Amino acid sequence: MTSPADPAPSAATSATSADPAAGSKPAPRKDPWDLPDVSALTVGVLGGTGDQGRGLAYRLARAGQRVVIGSRAAERAEQAAAELGAGVEGADNAECARRSDVVIVAVPWDGHAKTLEALRDDLAGKLVVDCVNPLGFDKKGAYALKPEEGSAAEQAAALLPDSRVTAAFHHLSAVLLADPAVEEIETDVMVLGEVRDDVEIVQALAGRIPGMRGVYAGRLRNAHQVESLVANLISVNRRYRAHAGVRLTDV
Ligand SMILES: NC(=O)c1ccc[n+]([C@@H]2O[C@H](COP(=O)([O-])OP(=O)(O)OC[C@H]3O[C@@H](n4cnc5c(N)ncnc54)[C@H](OP(=O)(O)O)[C@@H]3O)[C@@H](O)[C@H]2O)c1
């Protein structure tokens, strides 16, 4: 599970163009149709009392995943878990991290560094999935912030040297996730990371949610664009009164 990955295109398909497959023999497309079985993994959600955390917890639990939501206060997590049902459990963030195999970071950007620093030991060895979008808001709307480390995900990787850090779930609508009448979440999830096995676990987790598909989208150094795209989606949502998601074609 921890072997070094080569998420980059194979020699047969590597090129400097944005379309590495152009003009070359198509490589077998194993991914994203052949992913590991993740049904036995426990998923923790730090900041799981918020809109995004609750929504993801609800969807994963509804798909049969064991889920523990975390909070700075255990009682808030327990209360939110009871409201969500579907077997979701609640704990303080540290215990949530310790009890989980995969830990989604769903706290606001403001609290990101402080939260992860405090949980470094609890998150050691865990597969961490960062979904944080560093954004600012002014009278023109949302805009992307550029973290010193390059992105929220790279900040997580810098703060958690003993964890396996990936990034995903940035473009979801918490409103759709939380709506029990919505049967399928029609969106692709761009998954970034350094280790192929870790990325594939996250892709498989996304694929547990009906309608959702996880697609490998690069190394962590390219997380900034993915995190920033949310500023554009917020503009789309405001103009069209929508809950826009993202679909990647020809994959
Ligand atoms: N909302 C969306 O649709 C959406 C979609 C994709 C990605 N995201 C990303 O997901 C993250 C969470 O979004 P959200 O809308 O769920 O945020 P939120 O509701 O504002 O916060 C989530 C939870 O984080 C905890 N929290 C608040 N301030 C904190 C701080 N300073 N330090 C540590 N924990 C703190 C709170 O839980 P406790 O008080 O119980 O600890 C809160 O319930 C954000 O980074 C966002 O960019 C959101």
The gist of it:
With 251 residues, the chain is α/β, with parallel strands linked by helices. The chain is built from 8 helices and 10 strands. It has a single domain, classed as 3-Layer(aba) Sandwich (Rossmann fold), CATH 3.40.50.720.
The assembly state of the depicted protein chains is single chain
Mean residue pLDDT? 91
The CATH superfamily name is NAD(P)-binding Rossmann-like Domain
CATH T-level topology: Rossmann fold
Low-confidence stretches: 1-17
**Principal-axis shape:** globular
Please identify, by name, the CATH architecture.
3-Layer(aba) Sandwich
- Biggest sheet character: 8 strands, mixed
Level of helix content?
25-40%
Q: List ligands, each type once.
A: NADP nicotinamide-adenine-dinucleotide phosphate
SSE order: EHEHEHEHEEEHEHEHEH
**How far apart are the termini?**
24 Å
Question: Rg from C-alpha positions?
Answer: 18 Å
Structural class given helices, strands, pairing? alpha/beta
CATH class: Alpha Beta
User: What's the count of strands?
Assistant: 10
Strand proportion, as a percent range, falls in 15-25%
Q: Tell me the count of domains.
A: 1
Total helices: the number is: 8
Strand order of the largest sheet: 3-2-1-4-5-8-9-10
